[in-house]
Amino acid sequence: MPDKNTRSPEHEKTKKILKIAGGIVLAAGIVFAAIGFISLFSSFGSGSPPGLFWCAILGLPMCAVGGGLLSMGFRREINTYVKNESVPVINEAAGELRPAVGDVVSAAREAQNAEETAVCPACGERNEKGSKFCKGCGKPLRSVCPACGKDIPSDSAFCNHCGAKLR
Ligand SMILES: [Zn+2]
Ligand SMILES: [Zn+2]
């Protein structure tokens, strides 16, 4: 699959960039938010205005953006994994091959059956090749040609020895 080979490294790169960028933005956002909230809480104790609270206002959206980038990076990984999963491909190939193999096998079995059996013209029972009487109904499977006297299958329309018309 040339498609997979050309696309995979690109996916890998995008995924890595998303994860790295997401991680950096998320980490920076957490640090900014922490600075902002520490400033806010310490201002409660000291009574002075929270000089660094803007850090929290900046840091919280950064956390959200970083988290979003990270999840995109990982989602891409999941998609790529599912898309490049080899098992469905093998299953698909096997699914296409199976009926063909089955046809060949059943055709071979059918041919073998036809060769090894003598179907009774009266009841349709499959008898072993060379049987003289049907195991299903007891009627003769072979008869004697009235023209040449040779042993022939009882359902023959013509004698396979002399060609005499039998029906
Ligand atoms: Zn029979
Ligand atoms: Zn004959």
What is the count of helical runs?
3
Distance between the termini: 64 Å
Overall average residue pLDDT: 78
Count of beta strands: 4
| Each distinct ligand | zinc ion
Write up what this structure looks like.
The chain has helices at residues 2-46, 54-84, 86-116; strands at residues 117-119, 126-128, 142-144, 151-153. It has 167 residues and is mostly helical. The protein has a domain at 2-84. The strands form 2 sheets. A two-stranded antiparallel sheet has the order 1-2. The chain has a two-stranded antiparallel sheet with strand order 3-4. A hairpin with a 6-residue loop joins strand 1 and strand 2 (126-128). Helix 1 packs antiparallel against helix 2. The model is unreliable at 1-6 (pLDDT under 50). The protein binds zinc ion (2 copies). One zinc ion (ZN) is lined by residues 145, 147-148, 150, 159, 161-162, 164.
